[in-house]
Design a protein that fits this description.
Number of strands: 2
Number of helices: 5
Largest sheet: 2 strands, antiparallel
Order of helices and strands: HEEHHHH
Distance between the termini: 25 Å
Helix content: over 70%
Strand content: under 5%
Radius of gyration: 18 Å
Strand order of the largest sheet: 1-2
């Protein structure tokens, strides 16, 4: 299980990388793409998509760093690794999906990298245990920790 836990931290990093790259590309595109005489970055809908992605990815990044730190310290990190992997893969997916949305029809073409980021991040929801499995691991660890403190 220790190898799986460590792998989950790595998968979280991969998901974060995809989400961050897609968000960065979408930000640049939004600043350049003009619609009705303004960059689309001026529009609230685009601003909120970028803000949500940035916020969610930062939270997932902190969970990932915490899991990695616990591992480096030789402390138990099963729950934290699963939380990091779950948050990063789900939020990475959402960020890539939003990036495709920001680019509109272009986001779905191979001319721009966000379609690739979306395809790449999808597998992070499967590798080292699906998101559903991560929820099982997390809930099992919560119950186990509660039992130790209540006992």
């Amino acid at each position: 299980m220790m190898a799986l836990d460590g792998g989950r931290i790595g998968i979280a990093g991969l998901a974060l990388g995809c989400g961050l790259a897609a968000t960065e590309f979408a930000r640049g595109y939004a600043l350049e793409r003009q619609q009705f005489g303004h960059p689309i970055a001026d529009y609230q809908a685009i601003q909120w998509m970028l803000a949500d992605s940035a916020t969610e990815l930062e939270a997932a990044r902190l969970l990932t760093l915490r899991a990695a730190w616990l591992k480096e310290q030789g402390r138990p990190f099963t729950q934290e690794a699963s939380m990091a992997k779950l948050a990063a893969s789900e939020r990475g997916w959402a960020a890539c999906d939003r990036a495709v949305q920001v680019l509109g029809g272009f986001g779905y073409t191979r001319e721009f990298p966000v379609e690739r980021y979306l395809r790449d991040v999808r597998v992070t929801r499967i590798f080292e245990g699906t998101s559903e499995i991560q929820r099982i691991v997390i809930s099992r660890e919560i119950a186990r920790r509660f039992a130790r403190t209540a006992g």
